[in-house]
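@channel anyone free to eyeball this complex?
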Amino acid sequence: MSRESLKSLASRTARQPWGLWWTQAERVVQIEIRRSLFSWRAGWVYFLAYVPTLIIFLHTIVDRHPPGAISEDTKVLAGIIQLYYIRLGIFFGCLGIFSRLIRGEMMERSLHYYLLSPVRREILLLAKFVAGSINAVLLFGSAVLANFALIYAAFGAAGRDYVFSGPGLNQLFAYLLVTVLACLGYGAVFLLLSMIFRNPAPAAMLVLGWEALNPVMPEILQRISVASYLRHLMPVSVATEGLFALLTVETEPVSAWAAAAGLLMVIAVVLIYSCYRIRSIEIRYTTE
Amino acid sequence: MNDRIVFDDVSKFYGEVLGVNRVTLSLPPGVTTLVGPNGSGKTTLMNLLTGLVSPSNGHISVLGLAPSETTEFFRMVGYCTQFDSFPRGLTGWEFIVDSLLLHGISHDQAAKLALESIERVRLGDAAARRIASYSKGMRQKIRLAQAIAHHPRVLVLDEPLNGLDPMARAESLALFEELGRQGMHLLISSHILEEVDRISDRVVLITGGYLIAVGNIHQVRQEVREKPMEVIIRCNNPELLASRMFAINHCVEARLHPDGKGVFLRTGDVDQFYSILNDIAAEGTIKVETVAPADDDANAIYQYLIGANGSTS
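replying in thread with the prediction:
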């Protein structure tokens, strides 16, 4: 690209109404969070997020917690994050949250209000994605945090020691990072699927199967998966047997930052394609 | 800046189903009524105009802007659709304020504009209630308020009188008329032709996805010359006038006005008709008070051109 064309691109970019776009995106995010996070319809997502928390809470009350059981409970927590949240809770929670953003509004015949506003469709899509991500991260992040706190609080001084003087805090940050990336990754995928398919549920089942079988796929195909990147970020490995072993198997060793960067790149690619798709969306509610 | 709404050879196909075919239109400011039977392509035309659907062929511009230039386009255009649905759980007030905030204006400014538009459609205190509790007429009003709240220069209204009671209809028509007088573009589709016709500057007749006539309502009527035209004449001796006029072979029907002070005459040659009427008036035996076309309204032309079943005659 010549210097002149670069200059002209830079000047065109600078002339864009970035301030207005930022304000509009902020407003869409606020509206979406208000409409979806605090609605009764989100109840089942709350359930998905907090059902392990409830079970851990009951164990905290009922079970005895000798200091020697910390390592066992640490593995239990790792199993809950890797086998429940990543594979089921966040997966289906994001399916519900993100497929509602565009497809849900088409089903309820209210998407046209957004499309008739002076908001660029790409801004609308990205703002909706941010709103969905905030919803998902708030719900699942707080649930993971609560699970972590409950598990180690039950051990009293030994638990505090493990968290603040041992590996506990690092593990917590890793779990929160995994949760955030899982929400963003599955969110981007389900947002796109909901624009392509009228009913994204069957496609989501295919994604679930793909994610489960991904570790035994050729290396190049392993890169097209959310869970495969997240596996490299898990601070505690979970030993499983039988079919469950497929869900936790370590693939080619990758550094944590490379896994995070790789997943963010996948998310960016999916979002860019979604921006392209939303430009051609038509309002034809009668065919929904 | 161009002040017209332009459809340039626009076609829209939904798969193999025709939406509209090769529509070319150039509409100046004022009130334009879109007339056609159900499924004729009125809503498709409006959705094309506002970018809710994309044309399979051709180009559309509104005051020089394409619908894809979202930011500038939707500051100038308001569209009150026929979709009777809303985002869940909102009050009328929240619905309008949310829409206005997307324009990037301040919360204070949004509140001011929302209040103004709610007052304009006379929704009053109901704006504080959830839309789910509204009657059909109130939902129609809140959609109209949302469409006009940002002071658009072009207002597209798809069946805006549906569900309104007679009083609300009259208020809405007065509002449309006022907006049209202020130099706005209003594109209105409606089945209540007699009412909309009164405020229309021009009509667009469409059926089966094809435009069949465009223009000032009286011009369009003149173009339908092969159809007998009905004229009402107020005079002191309608029976005598009817008998005189009926003797002319191109006068095909005559009936007295119910009040007995006028006569409806249907003629196949309006120029000859007026010429003979002038002669009769000049004789002085019949005192003619007023002469007016009785069927050059949108409804009559619609019936002539499209027919009751929607097929072109």
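from a first look: Chain B has a mean pLDDT of 86.
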